[in-house]
Amino acid sequence: TIATNLASFYARENKSVVLADFDPQGSSLQWLAARSPERPHIEGVAGLEPGFRLPRRVDYAILDAPAAVHGAELTALVRRAQTILIPVLPSATDMRATARFVHELLLVGKVTRQETRLATVANRVAPTPALKRAAEIMLGGADSPYQSTASQIYRPLERFLTRLRIPFVATLPDSPSYALADARGLGICELGDSRATWDCVPWRPLIEWLDSRRSLPPSV
In a designed cystine with 110, which of 33, 36, 115, 138 is the match (CB 3.0 to 4.6 A)? Predict the structure, then answer.
């Protein structure tokens, strides 16, 4: 979801974009196959094909990596990357898995030498409706601090990502608009309805970070 939405965003900005799918499920290429040729062009390539090479003259090459990648496969992917985004779901299981992954990632030579930048993204976070948030504020001063279920799930994730000492750059809420966009080969900001327009807003901090020098290693 993050890879395809970033690809669609930069394509809409008239940038040349390559979307390289390294996931055996091929989800990104399937998304691209559903995309209308009338939409801004994105070049899709199968990263798992023998002899794969990234095109040299593109503005953005976005690599969709598989989940639970380790060892030599992880090292090979890191060698290709200037910037690595680590999405984390709001569950204890995913946070534990991410902690193990980050530990291994920090041992990869290119990361150790600070030749690539890392950032985390909280993904598929249940939004807290305005009335529930107001109740949290009103009841929070009581003897037993009140938190909605959504907040009880998100707060541990927020604390976990902060403790990683890796830039925590965005929180992307769960929304049915993503399923609609995915089925049509669109990014969330290409749907054009009012709900999707609101869903675009949480992407701004991520885009701003990616477009800044903070997302690039010092040597670039």
Answer: 115
| C-alpha–C-alpha distance, residues 209 and 220, integer Å | 15
Q: What is d(CA 163, CA 65) in angstroms, rounded to the nearest whole number?
A: 24
Give dist(CA 42, CA 171) in Å, integer.
Answer: 25
117 within 8 A of 84, measured Cβ to Cβ: yes
Task: Give the model confidence (pLDDT) of 10-33 as tens digits.
Answer: 999 999 999 999 999 999 999 999
The pTM score is 0.86
User: CA 137 → CA 148, 155, 171, distances in Å?
Assistant: 11, 15, 20
State how far the Cα of 186 lies from the Cα of 42, in Å rounded to an integer: 11
* Closest C-alpha among 130, 65, 71 to residue 100: 71
